[in-house]
# Entry
Amino acid sequence: MKVLVINAGSSSLKYQLIDMNNQHVLAKGNCERIGAGGAITHKTDSAKLEYEVTFPTHREAFLEVVKVLTSGEGKVIDDVKEIAAVGHRVLHGSEVYKVSTLITEQVISDIESFSELGPLHNPPQAAAMRACRSVFGPETPMVAVFDTSFHQTMPEKAYMFGIPYEYYEKYHIRKYGFHGTSHRYVSGHYLEITGKKPEGTRLIVCHLGNGSSITAVQDGKCVDTTMGFTPLDGLLMGTRSGAVDPSVLTYLANKEGLSPDEMSNILNKKSGFLGVSGLSSDARDLVNASKEGHHRARLACDMVRYQIKKYIGSYAAAMGGVDAVLFTGGIGENSGELRTDCCEGLRFMGLWLDEKENGYNTGSDHKISAADSPVEVWVIPTNEELAIALDTMEIIGR
Ligand code: ADP
# Structure
């Protein structure tokens, strides 16, 4: 059985076709510049294609994906009917979608209605679902997998902000959390490979990439997470500020005469690693520059590592202890140096690394804590596409 996984943005459509019999990725690619020209990259085990093609809307992009999957050098299936179902990544499910769901017209309208909560993602994702249905037909089931769902188990005390309650009632302002599919996959995968039961196990999942978040998982459920009402909260990220004293924003807006949109642009696009270092939003660039003595690059690295360590400590306190810390995402999986710094000084809570193990970047699940460390530390590569495909299979199987 083959599942097509879709991650749509306003001008892009990323896809993966996964053979669920062996979880092998048959093909993956990206349609870019939708609405403004167009180009596709497509990769299979034996071919790598890249060419320009006009994509006025997501529908033309889907038509091209079908064409490239079923014909020419990039062909991996004979007929589109071999695709049993399509799984769509969705940013925001509000408080309504607590688990993944079969897509109906009602679900698409709901996703559109949450657009104020996810203005950049929900509208194109809903549009992509409609385009997909028009290309694949109603007989191909589609499933929506929400980035927010996994965090819906947070208790009220963790998700409410200390502002007048009426704003929660009027505008649904609360912490939602994001990267839920990754946190769920990584925590679930850890339990699977170690044979531990969710009940009684306390995990801290550090998803560190261009966007980063940390989640406390107790009894298999999210109890707290660092991202908030939007993905801006929590850790310093590539271009996002992470948590800032809210008064800084009103002060700065007054001083510089900034509108809310301009402020949002600064916090989302010009802050984080880029804003602090003045150099780059890419963690590797900062690591290299800091080795050459670039003070602000070093500062950005130090800030995020210090923040990660503080969240590990605070989430351990929130759960009354921790059994394992799991690192994932481009930075979490690849930077042994960052993992060392984040775990340094945590021996008091029973956590220390095996530096030799931590030095290997194996690209696969890998325990990096010392054999006698009571708290385990692992690197577990995330696989959001597989998680979406597994949910899709499960839901269409029902
Ligand atoms: P996204 O959040 O866009 O999915 P990724 O999870 O792929 O991003 O993470 C990208 C980040 O991972 C970039 O900042 C990149 O520099 C960083 N990264 C990749 N390899 C390394 C490495 N060896 N050391 C430090 N950072 C790394």
Residues 209-211, 238, 282-284, 287, 329-331, 334-335 surround adenosine-5'-diphosphate (CB under 6 Å). Residues 3 and 71 are 18 Å apart (CA to CA). The longest helix spans residues 295-319. The mean pLDDT is 97.
